[in-house]
Amino acid sequence: MMKRDMKAHPASHFISRELSWLEFNQRVLSEVLDSKNPLLERVKFFSIVSSNLDEFFEVRVAGIKQQIESDIVERSVDGRTATETFRAIHARVDAMMETQFKCWRTELIPQLAKNDIRFLRPDELQPERLAWLNEYYHQQVRPVLTPLGIDPVHPFPQLLNKSLNIILQLEIERDGNTSRHLAVVQVPQVLPRLVRLPGTESQRDYVFLGHLIGHYLADIFPGTKILGYWHFRVTRNSELYIDEDDVRNLLSAVEQELHNRRKGAAVRLEVDKDTPEEVNQYLMENLDLTAEDLYRIDGPLNPARLMAICSGDHSPELRDKPYVAPVSVTVRDVGDLFAAIRQKDILLHHPYESFSTVVDFLENAARDPHVLAIKQTLYRTGGDPRIVGALMSAVRNGKQVTAVTELKARFDEANNILWARRLEEAGVHVVYGMAHHKVHSKMALVVRRDEDCIRRYLHLGTGNYNPSTAKIYTDLSLLTAAPEFGEDATNLFNLLTGIGQFQGATKFLIAPFTLQERILAMIHAETEAARQGKPARIIAKMNGLVDRDLIEAMYAASTAGVEIDLIVRGMCCLRPGIPGVSERIRVRSIIGRFLEHSRVYCFENQGKPLVYVGSADWMPRNLHNRVEVVFPIEDPSLKNHLINDILLRFLEDNTRSWRLLPDASYQRIVPAPDAEPISAQAEFMEAALHSNRKRSSRGTPRARMISTGSTKSAVKTALKPATMPKKRAKRGQQNP
């Protein structure tokens, strides 16, 4: 009914998903270009830009190329054909990489050198250092090299995905005749890409492994004359293709596809900028690529490996000020975590508050003699021994333990297979989720025999059970013993591990069953309230907004008078500011020290706000192809804290935020001349470290949402904490 009431908007009202993603990566690149950032943080962002592009080509561009090659001809939501999208991608990426590597050459390298971090070529080394490098080559590198000649007997080799390679031209004399040949040397992935030269602790000089190998090519190809060598790198289609209707063993099928991924169809070729055109042409022909797949790089071909120079505890002056997340004040002095959860719901904000509380919850459950069973979803654990170790320990302690492990978590499949096997060997009952749907929900259920009854304790979150990423991703965790939450979790686990039909849920919104329908219903309710002249507003924070039905619903809501603020980190296909369509919709993106990962959805609901938190973005894959759990925040103080202390802080941010404009570009938000710089992430760190700051919920039992006015007036006139400092303290670190 709601979908029929919505107007179908033309393609001009939507933004390309792929181009929107590239705009997100451009915002990441802006952190590289920002000279106010510490130098090694800029290097980190430089690496992230490239690793982001790798995944973009492996998945998104690979899919676009498959569309081009298929017999299906259709337009995307923004009106482009697959070919038009592909050409727009090439132009945008080419310009982005030109900016990225110009910054590397003209800013990062000179500034690193000033701080005694240098990248040298072998022919630049003094004799004693060259002698050390020669020994390193013969002992560590030469034994693992395999020269690959190319001739009628030796065809062009099968090169691994994202592997760095060297192609060289050489001359060889036989029987008085001189002939030219091409050959390939694969730069071993098992060796460090950066070789640190001996020196003082303060001096950090490196040689790229590719340059080291290039220096010794004559040793690898004896009796030849090396005419030239150049680096190149191939990116391949890395999507998994598994027909779950035809496989009897999903684990084996995923393992087979992982093997195939390493040799999937090539989708991108990166080459040294000075590579001769005939060599480029030769590579493209053998990789079945065209000139639009070729990218010439004036710099290192695999910048992700540059993260190595950031390892260790050197150069603190070139980094962000260290931040060690404290344990949340709500559980800091708690002796019995289960008793604390029984007393009230506990909301944690990571990485500002330590993820150790979640680990403690699992470890306490594993050793508590009153705990009967543990059930947990595992999407990306990172193989952390504390998480999987708690499940194994629980089995040893006689508890029933079930782990729903998602084998198809993109690029974590091999790691998840490894830990699934170890869990099974330890006696954990491991299942692989639902057929045709990734299990993306973040949920741990603990069944405990308390003095008065058997009670269910639950952890629900927006992020993975991964203590490593929990230090750099912003996420939310809820610890609760609410009976209705426990019942919904039990029913969902039964569905994931057993055979049956979805029976509905009392509190949870669960994809692929009810999530989209319920979100549409809440948007529709705000739309009707606005039409009736009642307060109506939506604030939603997510990683991606792509789903057309939800975008159409928000366009209708905006037209009716609903004020909408969206905080979308990455892709956003909604086009704000269209007259008569989306004038009341504002979209911002925050790029800072931490990766924004939490999802929070807030609806005015006529003065009685509904606040939901969960694992799902507003994208078709989350709504229809994944098992997602979105749950309500019902405690009034926690609800108020989420709205006033978190969401509104994001809307106040004027140092790390970007505004999406109607033309699909992003504009950095800067403080007005008379305004104080505000960074939401810096505020959250400060609030956690100074936990004596009173929460806004005290004395404010009900959170209120305004229904009219701009974002600025909204922040100034409503939804502000009841306990605000009279004047913000000046901060020495505005750029967290």
What share of residues are in beta strands? 15-25%
**Shape estimate:** globular
Give the overall pLDDT as a whole number: 88
Structure class? alpha/beta
In CATH terms, what is the fold-level topology of the largest domain? polyphosphate kinase like
Our count of domains comes out at 3
Quaternary structure of the protein: single chain
Helix content: 25-40%
CATH architecture label name of the largest domain: 2-Layer Sandwich
Protein architecture, described:
There is one protein chain. The chain has 20 helices and 27 strands. The protein has 736 residues and is of the alpha/beta class. The protein has 3 domains: 11-318, Polyphosphate kinase middle domain (polyphosphate kinase like), CATH 3.30.1840.10; 337-506, Endonuclease, Chain A (2-Layer Sandwich), CATH 3.30.870.10; 510-717, Endonuclease Chain A (Endonuclease, Chain A, 2-Layer Sandwich). Strands 14, 18, 19, 20, 21, 23, 24, 25, 26 and 27 form a 10-stranded mixed sheet that branches. Strands 10, 11, 12, 13, 15, 16, 17 and 22 form an 8-stranded mixed sheet that branches. Strand 23 (599-603) and strand 24 (610-614) form a beta hairpin. Helix 3 runs antiparallel to helix 4 and helix 15 (515-531) packs parallel to helix 16 (548-560).
